[in-house]
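Action item from last week, closing it out:
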Amino acid sequence: VYKRQVEDALSRWGTLERAGRHASHSEALKGRGTVWVVPGPAEGGRVAIRRYLRGGWMAGVLHDRYLRRGRSRAHMEALASDAARERGIPTPRVEAGVLYPTGALWYRADLMTSYVPGSVDLARFLFEREAPGPDCPPDEAHRAGALAEAGRLARRLAEAGIYHPDLNAKNFLVTAGPEGPAVQVLDLDRARVTTRAITVAPMAARLTRSLRKFETTRGVALGERGWTAFRNATGGNS
């Protein structure tokens, strides 16, 4: 069913990203780039479409271009996502990926994943007062709960043998509910999948740096309750 949707989108618009931008009833989610949430082939379902974009210093040079060598980002993410889900790691399902050759050396790529309704990234959940919404305001208890779930998920990744090299606060998806927040992990295109458990320390340290940076830039302290919940969940220090 997704194949037909992708083929129709490419036939009309040339790329998935452009199709998402022009789709009726689309919703734009802002981040490093825009994620387009559009109706999927299943009734009532939606999918998220995003263009792969460079980060760091390379963003200004290469923007959305990747070297045509080895497996593409979309292919690597699909493989890592499938492996993670098979090992019980919650992450949105990869539905499709499309590559666009750009000259002899480069390609651009789009990814389509299942959409998790009512979700926001962890940074927004923790540091923006309006998230996740009036029915579940981000008070101290909700922040501590989300931090504990993120720490737990980092530890589960390590126990499953999956190393995420950029486990920052934007790469967790939080859904608030009456029983507390549920968390999924995002952006597995550079994840390394191994056959044995690994240490959580590098991923926990990366997430800690990200959270500390947001504390500084947003002027919001997570507090001892939140940091204790996070430390207890990962089994480490922050």
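Closing note: The first strand starts at residue 27 and ends at 30.
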